[in-house]
Design a protein that fits this description.
The chain is α+β, with helices and mostly antiparallel strands and 154 residues long. The chain has helices at residues 14-27, 64-77, 106-111, 138-147, and strands spanning 2-9, 33-34, 38-40, 51-59, 96-105, 117-119, 122-124, 127-129. 29% of the residues lie in helices and 27% in strands. The protein is globular and about 45 Å long.
């Protein structure tokens, strides 16, 4: 499976936060593709701190639920275990990693031929893919257009 993630940060040394998260993701998969950094205002809440976001594409045999648990562990390891307050509202954060899109290589696995990537859709409690706000968030779309231009053309 190919996972497209988005890493966002708006507190502390934002560049360092992104690089540390990318290093941990890369170490867990043997490497990943990384988009350029996108700066944006906070989405869904007011904050004086702008976000830096980056897209990451990685391939792993982990299930989507395993990847979700893994990225939550990375967030906690980096000191950012939650991105909502007690009332459920978005808050500033050191690191937030989202699964925004998943593809499965159906042809190569089934027939040993050239890859044909197909979108994976998941709608489970706590896990919705594609991300439910994907098309509303330019800071998700701009990195995805770099990592997967054929799917996310402007």
């Amino acid at each position: 499976m190919k996972y497209y993630l988005n890493i966002g940060t708006n507190l502390g040394d934002r560049h360092s936060n992104l690089m540390r998260a990318i290093a941990l993701l890369s170490a867990g998969t043997g490497g990943c593709q990384v988009s350029s950094i996108v700066q944006s205002r906070a989405w869904g809440f007011d904050s004086p701190h702008d976000f830096l976001n980056v897209g990451v594409a990685l391939t792993t045999s982990k299930t989507a639920r395993q990847v979700l648990d893994w990225i939550h562990g990375i967030e906690a390891q980096l000191g950012s275990p939650c991105h909502r307050d007690a009332a459920g509202h978005y808050i500033d954060r050191l690191v937030d990693i989202d699964i925004v899109y998943i593809e499965q290589d159906t042809a190569a696995a089934a027939h040993g031929r050239h890859s044909r990537w197909q979108q994976v859709t998941i709608d489970e409690p706590g896990l919705t893919v594609p991300h439910p706000h994907l098309m509303e968030r330019p800071f998700f779309l701009a990195p995805l257009r770099q990592l997967r231009p054929a799917t996310f053309e402007s």
